[in-house]
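Fig. S4 source data, part A: sequence.
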Amino acid sequence: MRNKIKEQYINYILENGHEPESIFKFSKKIKIKEDEFYENFNSFVQINAEFWKDLVEETLAEIQTEGVYEGYSVREKLLSFLFTLIENLKRNRSFILKIYEKADKPLAFKSNAEFINAKEIFVEFMNDLVVSGQESREIEPRSIPFLTAKYPDLIWVLVLAIIEFWIKDESRVFEKTDTLIEKSVNTAMDWMGRTPFDSLFDLGKFLFQNR
């Protein structure tokens, strides 16, 4: 029943260009009782939230089953996630464009309820990347309190910014989005890795301790 409701909801939006007027009318159209809808979802927003959560989960499952995935660096794993996510978004573009119309914008800086569950899945994935990145020294453990712990949240902001860029991207085969992904991930990894600032900080710390 849950999958039926989701599929019928997506089809309704694709065919009508907007979400149903009410849960009552939608339930009647797909020939279920209204209480059956509420046994599965409490709103249309919750269906959208499950759509985004499923999309992130499916993307992670897809990249992690690739034989070469475990040998990837953190940078490569993040690139793989984003490129695969965009490919999965393409298959749902018409639906995404419609639900985007009602979203608070910009996506990266607004608290859209539709993304809460998807963010939880992604943050868990990114936490694992941060841990492995620190072990491989791709990611520098910062001495600034809580900064490293915020990396997954900050990268999620980047993910939402890329999604919104893709939504507006009118370039051939979304080539501008591909370029943005590469440049964004390279910048993020350079920022999370060891920088001249870290060496300067270490020097200052040494001089302070040995003054």
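Fig. S4 source data, part B ends here. Confidence is low (pLDDT under 50) at residues 198-203.
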